[in-house]
Amino acid sequence: MSKKYGVYICKGCGIGDALDIEAICDVVEEEALPCKTHDFLCSQQGVDFIKKDIEEEGTNTIVIAACSRRVNYNTFKFDGCIVERVNLREGVVWSHPRDAFPQLTEEEKQDENNFDRVQMMAEDYVRMGMARVEKVKLPEPYLLETMSRKIMVMGGGITGMSAALDAADAGYEVTIVEKEDQLGGNAKKWRKQLPIQPPYENLIPPMVADKVKAVENHPKIDIRTGMVVARIAGQPGDFTVTLKKPGEKIEFDVPYPLPPEMRVDENGKELEHEALLEKYKEYNEGRRDILTLDPNGEKFGAVILAAGWRPYQPKDDEFPHLGWGASPDVVTNHQFEEMAAAGKITRPSDGREAKNVVFVQSPGNGEDADFPYTGVVTSMVALKQAQYVREDYPDARAYIFYQHMRTSGLNENFYKAAQQDSGIFMSKGEITSVEKNGSGLVVSAKDTLLGENIGVNADLVVLATGMLPVTFDDPTVNLAYRQGPGFRDNDLFDKYADSNFICFPYETQRTGIYAAGAVRRALSVEESMEDASGAALKAIQCLECVNRGIAVHPRTGDMTFPDFFFQRCTQCKRCTDECPFGAIDDDEKGTPKPNPTRCRRCGTCMGACPERIISFADYSVDSIGSQVKSIEVPSEDDYDEPPLRILGLVCENDAYPAMDITGLHKKSFSADVRIIPVRCLGSVNVIWIKDALSQGMDGVFLLGCKHGDDYQCHFVKGSELASIRMQKIGDALSSLALEEERVAQYEVAIDDYDRIPEIINGFVEQVEELGPNPFKGF
Questions:
Q1: Which SUPFAM superfamilies does the entry link to (predicted)?
Q2: Where would you tag: which of 231, 253, 336, 430 has the fewest CB atoms within 10 A of its CB?
């Protein structure tokens, strides 16, 4: 579109009192752009003030210098207009009051130059805003030529049936795929079920039969039993799914990405660009196109993965101190449930009545931990199964030893009801041994609530082993993605099928595929049904967003998608490999093939591309690079001791909100820093850092989410990928004769706002010790 610019500066919230607004207008006019001011732009009068220019003067490219872009979003949203928000309130005025520079002496605080630094900060931000709107375009939605609104549910247990019913009741066609010949899953094997409604005190009959009947009678649900998913190809709104019978062989051409061991040289260092490209071509020689669709496949718009769990079966030598493998009368909770469903509880060794049963909740061995893949449901199951013992034999005794007894919400009532049973004993304690004692067993425990070591004679010992997600050692979804058939990097989640369980439950690392139930974590029936509703809503959200041509999550509503300038593509595969969500495949020639509705708009591909050929309509290497270049770098021509200029590339998901809170609390940091928010640290292209340093800026820091085992990145791998790239930037800095310490990366959570001044000022001090950038003034 032809751009008609307008710059609007708000004087409210203390901005007009702290800054020289006329000087800022002069900066705007130096760029030959119109500049207007208003006392309160966010008021109705202020909004109408802007709308008047839109309607009467055709203004369609707007820079609003006021509060953070994280507030008043809808207030300053004007259809058909490019809008850039310049953060003068939280980012400048509130975080830099005149008396808030503890690093300055009293004499320096009175120096007008220190006030000038805050003024220069505001003027730079306005320059950066103007530079950005010049380089961005108004996004247009990506719409599929054909789209399916059907939802496939993988798994016909309680979770899968609940998800199917929820989606079908909302008006969507649903197909359930279940590998067994009947619906019901593990619930068919239970004697009784945990309560799912008030008063949460008593066991109830399994509800699975009622669920099956409801599914079978629903007009919008198609049931496919005795079938599994052979392959899922395509993208949200246009998945092509091939079904097969269990054990049936169907051959697909699915080349996999270059194995990690082939990406490094003999010293373990990652291969350079050209060598990596040659290795990839060599590895895929003769392989055919991964994207070949099955002409007989069925079309779906979204997938709900509710494939469930299987019991964690300990290895023969895994828990010898608990008698596992040594006695048939030591069983898992899953085995015990099958025994209870079959009739009265007896000892496997001789069939005699089991009237003294010990339930072991934690493996002990000096560790304060439960068995693997357990949760609240494991505690609840122990309470349930203890009641089985009391039901079968009124004079029986059930003993529950635990490190953590967990009952969530109103399930506390179920725990209290069990406490009132005189035949159920519970104690925190560590089991030290389970040994034979005549025809029975003796269980020894220490550190109990009784304050002493105790021994209990037992007919049967039940180990509270966990619920292993079926995705543990089987991709299950069988994706026709270049990055492989399963969920990438699910080691981050102990093999659970989550994308980001902190911020985005139900989402997997593959857009359009949503996990529910025990593939996400160990859950009770009540929790699984709630999970099913969440996943169904996510699948519906996906369909509606794809239908409108916008991103699903976490940037819901974003119309942008990656645009490739293929003429310069070298087929290095970095965009394909580094995309956390598998949004990029290859075509038959090995050229990247984007799947826009898979994309979550994080920009990781943009940061990965060495040729810088990937961009988004309103976010590109050029748009951020232009902002960097618009920052004025003072030199000795202007100052005897020119102030530093330091660039901060800050993740908009956690770090930037934390910085806003820093301003809200009037906590100050160096006014020599210029902040540019980025979609994700994974989108940071190293050219921005090189440009900043080569134009004389004294340092660059990245501020983003925590990565590693305690990662918090909204885009799973972005912060980690940025860290890897920063480790490799040393060579580039050396070629510029600059110290590596001029570039740093820091991690913060959204509630770390009080640490931000310390982090930034610490980096500024580090740069001050290095001295000014030798490129300053050139």
A1: 4Fe-4S ferredoxins (SSF54862), FAD/NAD(P)-binding domain (SSF51905)
A2: 253
Q: Quick one: which H or E segment has residue 431?
A: strand 430-437
Fold of the CATH domain 619-778: Rossmann fold (3.40.50)
313-465: CATH topology is FAD/NAD(P)-binding domain (3.50.50)
The residues that bridge with 504 in the sheet, in sequence order, are: 500
pLDDT number for residue 276: 65
C-beta separation of 562 from 594 below 8 A? yes
Instruction: Say which residue the tokens 């697909």 belong to.
Output: 252
**Can you say how many angstroms the Cα of residue 35 is from the centroid of all Cα atoms in its chain?**
41
Fold of 151-251+295-309+470-548: FAD/NAD(P)-binding domain (3.50.50)
pLDDT in tens, 626-647: 999 999 998 877 777 889 999 9
Q: How many CB atoms lie within 10 A of CB 17?
A: 10
**What class, spelled out in words, does domain 1-138 have in CATH?**
alpha beta
pTM of the full structure: 0.90
The one-letter amino acid code at 57 reads E
Structure tokens at 233: 């190809």
Residue among 466, 564, 479, 469 nearest 519 (CA): 469
Q: What is the pLDDT of residues 29-87, one digit of tens each?
A: 999 999 999 999 999 999 999 999 999 999 999 999 999 999 999 999 999 999 999 99
Q: How far apart are the first and last CA of the chain?
A: 36
What's the count of helices (H) and strands (E) in the chain, helices before strands? 20, 30
Give 197's contacts (C-beta < 8 A, 6+ positions apart).
none
* pLDDT tens digits for range 10-40: 999 999 999 999 999 999 999 999 999 999 9
Which residues, other chains included, contact 329 with Cβ-Cβ below 8 Å and sequence gap of 6+? 323, 347, 348, 349, 354, 440, 441, 458, 459, 460, 461
Tell me where in the chain the CATH 3.40.50 domain(s) lie.
Answer: 1-138, 619-778
